[in-house]
Amino acid sequence: MFVTELVCVKCGRRYEMGQVEYTCEACGDDGILDVLYDYDRVKQVLNGRSLEADGNQSLWRYLPLLPLPDGARLPRLSVGCTPIYEAPTLARELGVGRFFVKDDGRGPTASFKDRASAVGTTRALALGRHEIAAASTGNAATSLAGFAADLGLAAKIFVPAAAPEAKVAQLLIYGAKVFLVQGTYVDAWNLCQQAVAAFGWYNRSCAVNPFLVEGKKTGGLEIAEQMRRELPDVVMVPVGDGCIISGITKGLREMQQLGVIDRVPRVIGVQAEGAAPIAAAFAAGGEALEPVEANTLADSIAVGTPRNWRKAIKGVKSTHGDFVTVSDPEIIEMLPRLARASGVFAEPTGVVAAAGIKRARERGLIAARESVLALATGNGLKDVKGAMRAVTLPEPVAPSLDAVRRSLR
Ligand SMILES: *Cc1c(COP(=O)(O)O)cnc(C)c1O
Ligand SMILES: [Zn+2]
Fold first, then answer.
1. Which ligand is nearest to the CA of 32?
2. How far apart are CA 333 and CA 327, in angstroms?
3. In whole angstroms, what is the distance from residue 288 CA to residue 250 CA?
4. Distance between CA 276 and CA 290 in Å, rounded?
C-alpha cells in the first residue's frame, strides 16, 4: 500500500492510516479526511508506460492509488473502464468545440457509485467487517447491495421512502436489509449514522468514510488516461454530496502528478437549482455552507445538507473550475437530447452535467472552441418515471396496417 497519511480537510490535522476510523477526532463529522500517497513511489509502478502495457480493463488497474492492503480479496464484479463517446451534433447545438460523454451508467449496478462500493466493500472485508451500512438517495445503496452480495457481506440500507422503484427493487433483489425512511435523504443519513454507532456496522457513507472518494477518484484517473491525447478543456460533473466531484478532481490531479497528462482540465460542478447549496457556497467564497430544503426531480443529487462540500470546493478551485445550476425543465429537456445525440440513456441526474453546459457557456465559463466532457453518472432505466416526463406516450394503435398509416400522417 502506498498511503502515507490522512489529512483533515477542515483543520489540516494529520493521521496515520488506521489511527482513526472515519473522520477527524478534533472536527467530528465535519472533519472529512483526504488520503495522501507517496507519489514518487507510486510513479515507479504506475505511469504512462505501465498503464499502456496493462491489459486489466477495470479500476483495479489503478490499485497502487487505492487505500487497500496488499493481497486484499477483490470483488468479482467488474467496474470501471467505461466508454467515452463523442457527439458532434450536441457540440454544435451547445456551442462548444467538441462534446464527449463518459457513460458511467454501465457499472454492474448501473451507476458511478459502483466505483466507491468496489473499494469500500473490499476495505470492509480486509478489516474483517461483515456488516456494512449506507444512507443513500438510491444508487449508493443499490451499489453497496450488489457488492455485498458478491463478497458475502450483510448490507444495511437507509433510503428515503420516495426513492425510485427500480432502485428499491435492486436493493430487495440483492437481499439487503432495507429501511425505507419516512423523510428526506438527510433523515435517512442521520438515522444511518445513529444505527452505525449503535450496532457497530462498517459505514459506507461516502461523506464520512474517506476511502470511498478514493474509489470515485478512479473516474478522474480514467478520464485522464482515456483522453490523454485529446484532453478536454472542461469536465462537467453532477454534484449532490460532493464526493464524485472531489474524486474526479483528485484523480485528474494525480494523473498530472504521475506525468500521464501535462495539465488538468477545469472541472465544473453542476447542481439542480432546487438543491444547490454547494454552488451557492462556492459563489460566496467557499468558506461556509447554508443547508437548503432539497427540491428537484434529479433524485440522486437531491441533497440539502451535503457533507463533502469542503473537499468538493477545494477540488474545483484546484482546477480553476466553477459551479453552475440547472432547472428541472432543463434536465428533462436534456434526457432525450443526450440519448438521441450520443446513444447514452441516463437517469435524470445522469444528464445534469450535459445540461449544465448551456449555463456555463452563458456565464462565459466555457469558450466556444473548447472541448467538454460530461459525466453521465447513472443509467436511464433506474428511473423510468423520470424519463417518461420527457416524452409522450403514443396512443395505442389497432393491429392493422391502416392504423399504422393513420399514425404516420
Ligand atoms: C450519487 C450520485 C451523484 C452525485 O454524487 P455526489 O458524490 O453525491 O456528489 C450524481 N449522479 C448519480 C447518478 C448519483 O447516483
Ligand atoms: Zn480536523
1. 2
2. 10
3. 22
4. 10
Task: For CA atoms 284, 287, 292, 295, give the dihedral sign.
Answer: positive
For residue range 356-394, what is the model confidence (pLDDT) as tens digits? 999 999 999 999 999 999 999 999 999 999 999 999 999
Q: Ligand 1 atom closest to Cα of 245?
A: 9
Q: Is 242 in the pocket of ligand 1 (CB under 6 A)?
A: yes
CA distance 352 to 220: 18
CA–CA distance, 238 with 136 (Å, rounded to integer): 16
- The neighbour count for residue 320, using CB atoms within 10 Å, is 10
Joined grid coordinates for residue 310: 469542503
Residue 97 CA, ligand 1 centroid: distance in Å: 27
| Separation in Å, CA 87 to CA 98, 100, 299, 344 | 8, 6, 26, 10
Is the beta carbon of 301 within 6 A of some atom in ligand 1?
yes
In angstroms and rounded to an integer, the radius of gyration of the C-alpha atoms of the chain is 21
How far, rounded to the nearest angstrom, does the alpha carbon of residue 61 sit from its chain's CA centroid? 19
Residue 302 contacts residue 275 (beta carbons within 8 Å): yes
Q: Does residue 28 lie within any of the structural domains?
A: no
Q: Fill in the amino acid letter for 166.
A: A
Q: Quick check: helix, strand or coil at residue 36?
A: strand
**Helical segments of 205-327, H only:** 210-226, 243-257, 277-283, 309-318
Ligand 1: residue whose CA is nearest its atom 11: 377
Q: Is any ligand 1 atom within 6 A of the Cβ of residue 277?
A: no
Q: How many domains does the chain have?
A: 1
All three cell numbers of 398: 389497432
- Is residue 150 one of the residues assigned to a domain? no
Distance of alpha carbon 22 from its chain centroid, rounded? 20
Residue 103 has what DSSP assignment? E
In a domain, 45, yes or no: no
Asked if residues 82 and 118 have their Cβ atoms less than 8 Å apart, the reply is: no
Q: Are 64 and 42 in contact (CB under 8 A)?
A: yes
Q: Is residue 324 part of a domain?
A: yes
Domain CATH for 344 = 3.40.50.1100
CA dist 6 and 13 (Å) reads 8
Q: What is the pLDDT of residues 278-302, one digit of tens each?
A: 999 999 999 999 999 999 999 999 9
CA 165 to chain CA centroid, Å, is 20
What is the reported pTM? 0.96
User: How far is 335 from 47, CA to CA, in rounded Å?
Assistant: 37
